[in-house]
Amino acid sequence: MTGATIERQFREKVCGEISLRPEGVERFRVDTPFMSDDGDLLAVILRKEGGQWLLSDEGHTYMHLTLQMEERELRQGTRQKIIANALTAFDVADRNGELVLPVRGDDFGDALWSFVQALLRINDVTYLTRERVRSTFMDDFRAFMSDKVPESRRTFEWHDPEHDPEGNYLVDCRINGMAQPLLVFALQGDGAVRDATISLLQFERWGLSFASVAIFEDQEAVGRRVLARFSDAGEKMFSSLSGNKDRIEKFLVDSMA
């Protein structure tokens, strides 16, 4: 099938604003009007591999996303589910970061439509709804703590086994191995801040020895009164995770020393 015939099928099945640009032997760049939310056009290459035509992004999609977030954040939690669902829905394969879709027979138009839809859905991870972003905040927090704190020194969703066997006063992550364990709270909103305040005050009543640190999703979104009450009970605070990772890492390292 010639390049002109393939281009015509692309235009008929997908969009009239599509063109092919030769880039060597049996290799074309597919120019489409489709773009990610920041205005970058999707990267689509049509090339022959092992006697079969396939569409590829040649690693551009993940590379583009990692300009806005860390690569490991794409491989876990809600973001990973969105990506996996998109790949499965449109039969796109992830080959070590390169997204590819073989063309079945001469169905070039259908293949391009599926490939573009998959890339657009994957790019959706950059503008999740607020509730879905909140779910990724906890995923991101856990991933960060797992990366920076040895497994033997951390416990997620910790509660005091002696005073609180039912786990009514939870701590998002407890770090041990120091004279005073460090209680780390991941705070998403007013409700989480209130719960953390109550937990800290209860720990004081029980006479527990500890230090505490709070990592907010967005401290500016927390009500002033709620934050004021928490500041009376809590100690170190970071206004966000995404904007303070280096500072939080240094704080954790110093605390664990």
Query: What's the domain count?
Result: 2
* Helix-strand pattern: HEEEEHHEEHHEEEHEHEH
CATH architecture of the largest domain: 3-Layer(aba) Sandwich
CATH topology of the largest domain: Trna Endonuclease, Chain: A, domain 1
The CATH class of the largest domain is identified as Alpha Beta
Ends: how far apart? 66 Å
Give the averaged pLDDT, no decimals.
Answer: 90
Quick overview of this protein structure:
By secondary structure, the protein is an alpha+beta fold.
Account of the protein in words:
It is a single chain. The protein is α+β, with helices and mostly antiparallel strands and 257 residues long. 40% of the residues lie in helices and 20% in strands. The strands form two sheets. Strands 1-2-3-4-6-5 form a six-stranded antiparallel β-sheet. A five-stranded mixed β-sheet has the order 7-8-9-10-11, with helices on both faces. Helix 1 crosses helix 4, helix 3 (77-89) packs antiparallel against helix 4 (108-123) and helix 6 (190-206) packs parallel to helix 7. The radius of gyration is 25 Å and the shape is elongated.
Features:
five-stranded mixed β-sheet, alpha+beta, Trna Endonuclease, Chain: A, domain 1, 257 residues, single chain, 40% helix, 2 domains, 8 helices, Yope Regulator, Chain: A, six-stranded antiparallel β-sheet, 20% strand
Question: How do the helices and strands line up, and which of them pair or pack?
Answer:
Blueprint lengths: L2 H11 L5 E4 L4 E5 L13 E5 L2 E5 L3 H6 L11 H13 L3 E3 L2 E5 L5 H16 L6 H19 L5 E5 L12 E5 L6 E6 L2 H17 L4 E6 L7 H10 L2 E3 L6 H12 L1
Parallel strand pairs: 9-10, 10-11
Antiparallel strand pairs: 1-2, 2-3, 3-4, 4-6, 5-6, 7-8, 8-9
Helix pairs in contact: 1-4, 3-4, 6-7
